[in-house]
UniProtKB/TrEMBL annotation:
Keyword terms: Amino-acid transport, Signal, Transport
Region described as Disordered: spans on this chain: 1-20
CDD domains found in the cross-reference section: PBP1_ABC_ligand_binding-like (cd06326)
Pfam families, per the entry: Peripla_BP_6 (PF13458)
Keyword Cytoplasm found: no
Domain Leucine-binding protein: 22-363
Protein family: Belongs to the leucine-binding protein family.
Name listed for the protein in its UniProt record: Branched-chain amino acid ABC transporter substrate-binding protein
Matching PANTHER family: BLR6548 PROTEIN
Length: 367
């Protein structure tokens, strides 16, 4: 169980649990393949909640983010969710990581009519059909790809290769359609399933792509493929979506990451060009956290917007009151300068914000 300090990724010490706390429940991967994503997100969220609690919380009640480790195991995620709702009386489920755990808990949250806020995934499972209990604050993968392909045509990238794994394969048809719509050419489609990285790198190199679209979610495999292609002389671009590439930015890719194109769903967290980024940086420094990140900013924004809903839901909080309150948060009633949030009774996708950044020769992310 994670509810307090865990090194630099989750530095904000949580107070001892009180019966008067507003408990926000999270089942997430703290020790498995998505641990880096989880801990960066939790850092930002806990920084915001700690800041809010220092000002008196919500109506004098502290918000307590209670995170249980599921190691990206959907079965464990369901167990954790039962525990969060039954034992800890969580008012909302928050920041679950990835599509698999989300798919596993959706039937339970629908049955219990619990707000499921800010899942960290762009999967179709939470974006294709409206679900009254699900609120997202990030753009979907489809939003990211639409934005990306509109830019590819502008910079003359026409020859495209796809690299994926089991998670990326369901998106093959969609990606082929977007490549065709962009008047580009799919020159290779390779999967890590049943192959090794070196053979895949040889095949991709032979296809002479302008850009390799990385649809795999394995950080180790993706890093190995990028290094291998660079070693073999590939001078083109790589692209990956926010959740695929963001964790790679703190790895040891070094110069091999040069030419990496990344779609991001929050503003650049290292340059305070917008009020929300300035606020995030100030809060992080106050909490003595020196490492900013896209996922940390996402967690900070998620916590801030959820807290706004909690504040509007009145002192006698219920799941239903929170849902109704969150549906009133929009750009006409809520100022979140630099990252607009728009909920309504008919739409719970709070944002479609997408930007594209690149990694330069020094490994620095350039907006």
């Amino acid at each position: 169980m994670c509810s307090g300090a865990h090194g630099q990724h989750n530095p904000v010490e949580q107070p001892a649990e009180s019966s008067n706390d507003i408990v926000v429940g999270q089942s997430a991967d703290l020790s498995g393949p998505y641990a880096k994503i989880t801990r960066q997100f939790i850092t930002g969220a806990n920084v915001y909640f700690a800041q809010l609690n220092s000002r008196g919380g919500i109506g004098g009640r502290r918000i307590r983010l209670l995170t249980l480790d599921d190691q990206n195991d959907p079965v464990q995620a369901v167990r954790n969710t039962h525990q969060l709702l039954d034992e800890h009386k969580a008012i909302a489920l928050f920041g679950y990581i990835g599509a698999q755990t989300t798919a596993a808990v959706l039937p339970l949250l629908n049955e219990r009519k619990v707000p499921y806020f800010a899942p960290v995934t762009g999967s179709r499972i939470v974006y294709t059909a409206f679900n009254r209990h699900v609120f997202t604050i990030r753009a979907s993968y489809a939003n990211e790809y639409d934005y990306l392909f509109s830019r590819f045509s502008q910079i003359g990238l026409k020859r495209m290769a796809i690299f994926n794994d089991a998670t990326g394969q369901p998106y093959n048809a969609m990606m082929k359609g977007k490549i065709s719509d962009a008047s580009a050419q799919l020159v290779a489609l390779e999967s890590i399933l049943g192959q090794d990285v070196e053979k895949i790198a040889d095949k991709l190199l032979a296809s002479r792509p302008d850009v390799v679209l990385i649809m795999s979610i394995s950080q180790n495999v993706n890093s190995a493929l990028i290094r291998s292609l660079r070693t073999k002389g590939y001078l083109g671009y790589f692209y990956c979506a926010s959740l695929v590439c963001s964790p790679l930015l703190t790895s040891d890719l070094e110069e091999a990451a040069s030419g990496l194109i990344i779609s991001q769903i929050v503003p650049h967290p290292w340059k305070a060009r917008t009020p929300i980024v300035h606020e995030y940086q100030k809060a992080m420094r106050t909490a003595r956290v020196t490492q900013f990140s896209y996922l940390g900013l996402e967690g900070y924004i998620a916590a801030k917007v959820l807290a706004e809903g909690l504040s509007r839901a009145s002192s006698k909080l219920t799941h239903e009151k929170l849902i109704v309150a969150l549906e009133t948060v929009n750009d006409k009633t809520y100022d979140n300068a630099g990252y607009q949030i728009n909920f309504s009774p008919s739409s719970h996708q709070g944002s479609t914000y997408v930007d594209v950044v690149t990694v330069d020769r020094t490994g620095t992310v350039q907006p």
